[in-house]
Amino acid sequence: MPRGVAWLVVRLLPVDAWAIAVTVAACLIVGGVAALVFHCSSALSSNTWVRLGFAAVPVLVAASPEEALGNLANLHWYFLYLAPWLLLKRPRTWAEGVLLTVAALLVGLTEIQAAVFVPLFLYRLRDARLWGPRLALLVGVGAQVFTTLAFPRENPAAPPVNWLSVVYGWFVDGPSAVMFGTAGQISRVVVRFGWVPVVLAGSSSLQRPRSSLFGVERARGLPQARSWAARSS
Q1: Bigger pLDDT: 208 or 34?
Q2: CA 61, CA 68: separation in Å to the nearest integer?
Q3: pLDDT given at position 134
Q4: Residue 153 zone, left/alpha/beta (φ > 0; ψ -120 to 50; rest)
Q5: Residue 65 confidence (pLDDT) above 60
Q6: CA distance 79 to 104
Q7: Structural contact between residues 66 and 19, judged by C-beta atoms closer than 8 angstroms
Q8: What is the pLDDT of residues 179-233, one digit of tens each?
Q9: Where are the domains of the chain?
Q10: I need a surface site. Which of 160, 177, 189, 205 has the fewest CB within 10 A?
Q11: Rounded to an integer, what distance in angstroms lies between the CA atom of residue 201 and that of residue 191?
Q12: Per-residue DSSP letter, 159
C-alpha cells in the first residue's frame, strides 16, 4: 500500500507537490482506517460512543505524531489495528462485502503481522459471508511470506534477531509507545536500570484495589518508574 501510494504521487503530481501530497495521502488513509473501524465495530457494540472510541484509537494514540501520521512508511501499524475488525464484521450487502474484502487484501499485502489474527477465523466459522475478508487476508499474508522467503533481505550491520526480540517488540516497545510517545523509552530504562522500574510498576498495579483503576488511588511504584524513565531520556 505505501509503495502504491508513493508511485501514484510520483506519476500524477509535479516534484514540488510530492511532500505535501504524501503527507495528505497518509493522513487520509489513517482517516479511512478510523472510518472502517467505526463501521466494523458494530459487530461488537451498538453504542455510538463506544464505536467512536474504537475508531479514535488510530488518530489519538500517543505514538501517532511520531510514528505514522503523515508518514507512509508506518501505515502498516494502522492496518494491523484494522485487521481484526475486518474479520469480525459480517457484510450485509454485496457492496459491503467487496469493500471489506478489498480492505483485508490491502491489509494482508501491507502488514505481514496481520497473520496473528488468523485464529479469529474460528469466530462464526460456518458463516459464509465472513470468509471473503478472511480469504483475502490469507492471500495477502501468503504473498508476503512467499516474497520474504523467496527474496530475503539481509542487513549485515543489523544486530541478530531472535524470538526474544519479538517479545520485546510486542510487550515492551508497544506499551512504551502508548505511555511515553516513543517505542524505545522502556527499553532504554531497562538497559540503564535493569528490570527494577518495570517490576515496581507492574507489582504496584497488581496490588492496588479496583477503585484505583478509576483514579481513586494512585499506584505507588508507577510514579517512581515514570521518573526514572524521564531521567533516562
Answers
A1: 34
A2: 10
A3: 96
A4: beta
A5: no
A6: 9
A7: no
A8: 776 777 888 888 888 888 878 877 876 776 554 444 444 444 445 555 555 555 5
A9: 2-150, 163-232
A10: 160
A11: 16
A12: P
Residues 46-59: tens digit of each pLDDT: 999 999 999 999 88
Burial code (b: 16+ CB inside 10 Å, e: under 16) for 88-102 equals bbbbeeeeebebbbe
Q: Determine if residue 47 is left, alpha or beta; phi over 0 gives left, psi from -120 to 50 gives alpha, anything else beta.
A: beta
- Beta-carbon contacts of 104 under 8 Å, excluding residues fewer than 6 positions away, are 83, 86, 87, 132, 133, 134, 136, 137, 140
The owner of cell 516534484 is: 15
Convert the pLDDT of each residue in 110-158 to its tens digit: 999 999 999 999 988 888 999 999 999 999 999 999 998 888 877 777 6
- Separation between Cα atoms, residue 120 and residue 106, nearest integer Å: 18
Considering only CA atoms, give the Rg of the chain: 20
What is the Cα–Cα distance from 95 to 124, expressed in whole angstroms?
Answer: 21
Taken as a whole, the chain contains a residue count of 233
User: Which 8-state DSSP code applies to residue 92?
Assistant: -
